[in-house]
Amino acid sequence: MKEVQYKRVTSVKNHQRVIAIHEKSENKDVLTDIHRTFIYRISKKVSELTDVPAPEFHIIKNCNSKTKEEKFLLRVKGVFYVVRHEGFLLVNFCHSLRVNLLRKSVIPAV
C-alpha cells in the first residue's frame, strides 16, 4: 500500500513558496515514511550579479538495531538568481529529504 500527499503553499506577502510531498508505503518487510520539502524565498532585487556561495549540505543518518529503525536526513541550503523584467532576483532555497525506515520484526518459527 502506498499513500502520497502533496501540498503547495504560495505566500505573495512573504514572497515564499513551499512544496511538500509526504509518502508512506508498506510492504511485507519495511514501513517507509518519506518527507520531501522545497522552500523558495525571494529576498531582494539586485542590479548586478555577485558570486553565489556554494550550497550548504547537512546529512544525518541514525540506525537503531534494537528497534530496527533507520533515519536519514538530507538538507541543502543555498542561493540562486532569477532573471525578471530586465533585473535579477535573489532567491534563497532550502531542500530537505527525510526518510524513516522501520523494519518489521520476524517472528521465529517454533
Question: How many structural units, i.e. domains?
Answer: 1
Overall mean confidence score, pLDDT: 87
Unreliable residue runs = none
Give me the count of strands.
6
Helical segment count: 0
The dominant shape is elongated
Radius of gyration (CA) equals 20 Å
- The computed structural class is mainly beta
**Share of helical residues:** under 10%
Describe what you observe in this structure.
By secondary structure, this protein is mainly beta. The protein has one domain. The protein contains no helices and 6 strands. It has a 6-stranded antiparallel sheet, with no helix packed on it.
Short description:
By secondary structure, the protein is mostly beta strands. It contains no helices and six strands.
List keywords for this structure.
110 residues; six-stranded antiparallel beta sheet; mainly beta; 6 strands
Layout of SSEs?
Elements: E1 2-11, E2 16-26, E3 30-46, E4 56-64, E5 69-84, E6 87-103
